[in-house]
Amino acid sequence: MEPCCAGHKTKHRTPEEQRQLTNRLSRIEGQIRGLKEMLAQDAYCPDILIQVSAATAALNSFSKELLATHIKTCVAENIRRGDDEVVDELVCVLQKLMK
Questions:
Q1: pLDDT tens digits, one per residue of 36-87
Q2: Residue 67's closest CA among 48, 38, 92?
Q3: Which residue range forms the structural domain that includes residue 84?
Q4: Of 72, 61, 96, 74, which Cα lies nearest the Cα of 12?
């Protein structure tokens, strides 16, 4: 399997995984377009904020799914091969996600 995850590394995804992740991002993209439309239509601020919260939750859900897959595949495989640097990389990613 190819190296994955940081910098110049890549990750091969199955067609099903690619489809699921792309579908999630397409839904989020639609939510963002909806926010722009609400703004253009002078929607009430709390209504926009509720939709922002929904889009944020969708992005967080996407991140959690991607992180879980990363840990189950990339991290686990590298640890099995004796590459402990992947743990440092994971810690760095988690620190950035928790900002």
A1: 999 999 999 999 999 999 999 999 999 999 999 999 999 999 999 999 999 9
A2: 92
A3: 15-97
A4: 74
Buried b (16+ CB within 10 A) or exposed e, 74-88: bbeebeeeeeeebee
In a domain, 6, yes or no: no
> Are 72 and 92 contacting, i.e. CB atoms less than 8 angstroms apart?
no
Q: Is residue 1 part of a domain?
A: no
- Dmax (CA) of the chain: 56
Kindly report the CATH number assigned to the domain that includes residue 46: 1.20.58.1000
Q: Who's near 85: CB < 8 A, 6+ residues apart? A: 78
Residue 32 lies in a domain: yes
pTM: 0.82
23 CB neighbour count, 10 Å cutoff: 10
Contacts (Cβ under 8 Å, ≥6 apart) of 48: 35, 38, 39
- Distance from chain centroid for Cα 52: 17
